[in-house]
Design a protein that fits this description.
Rossmann fold; two-stranded antiparallel ribbon; 7 helices; globular; SGNH_hydro_sf; hydrolase activity
């Protein structure tokens, strides 16, 4: 087991973020992800609900992250859910989205740390044939392009999660997302049908997809995953 310690910083939106008690059982994938490493790894989850690359930067949330980076650190970057929606206050143009990702990458590398880009995890939307729709087409593609152009490690969470949705189908995938009938949970007395955010079970499954991506990249981090935690 590696004895030298490292920190994995997560920056992103609500799909990765820690949740307050009044939001449960909604769960970000960053929570179970953090539990899957041995004691040499610390996961610092800086992701926050409702953020885009632009607002994360504008609010000064990136500054303390980059200021604390060292050569032993990783920065996992997953945005897109809010950047891509023109009607949202957090909307980020395509050119600005690319520039922001490039800033995260460049400043991470300037500190000697390792950036990892992630495409956004798929929303649970199916077409009439029962196939999962490509809900992040443009902004996932932009993330892939930045990863290719800047030679950055990429975990294609969009592709991996759509494959999982295709395997489970419309009904089988529903328990992975925050779907509750009225009266089942006090935080959602009227029920909820949320096809973007995850249940605890769903967050664990999505975290596994991210960890599979870590292994596929052959990152040094892969040796630190606690296999007994499955």
């Amino acid at each position: 087991m590696p004895s030298d310690s490292t920190t994995v910083h997560l920056i992103g939106d609500s799909t990765a973020a820690e949740k307050d008690p009044d939001e449960r059982p909604e769960t970000g994938w960053g929570t179970p992800f953090a539990e899957r490493f041995d004691d040499s790894v610390t996961v610092a989850n800086h992701a926050r609900n409702g953020r885009s690359t632009r607002t994360f930067l504008e609010e000064g949330r990136w500054d303390p992250v980059v200021d604390g980076l060292t050569e032993t650190h990783y920065v996992f970057v997953q945005f897109g859910h809010n950047d891509e929606v023109p009607s949202k206050e957090q909307y980020t143009t395509e050119s600005a989205f690319v520039a922001n990702l490039e800033q995260f990458v460049a400043e991470t590398r300037d500190r000697g740390a390792t950036p990892v880009l992630l495409t956004p995890i798929a929303r649970r939307h199916f077409d009439e044939a029962g196939e999962p729709e490509d809900t992040h087409h443009d902004y996932a593609a932009l993330t892939r392009e930045v990863a290719r152009d800047r030679d950055v490690a990429l975990i294609d969470a969009d592709e991996r999660s759509r494959a999982l949705l295709a395997d489970l189908g419309p009904e089988g995938s529903k328990p992975l997302y925050n779907h509750l009938p009225p009266g089942e949970h006090p935080n959602y007395p009227d029920g909820v049908a949320d096809d973007t955010h995850f249940s605890e079970r769903g967050a664990r499954r999505m975290a596994e997809l991210i960890l599979d991506g870590v292994e596929a990249l052959d990152l040094g981090l892969a040796a630190r995953v606690d296999r007994d935690g499955r």
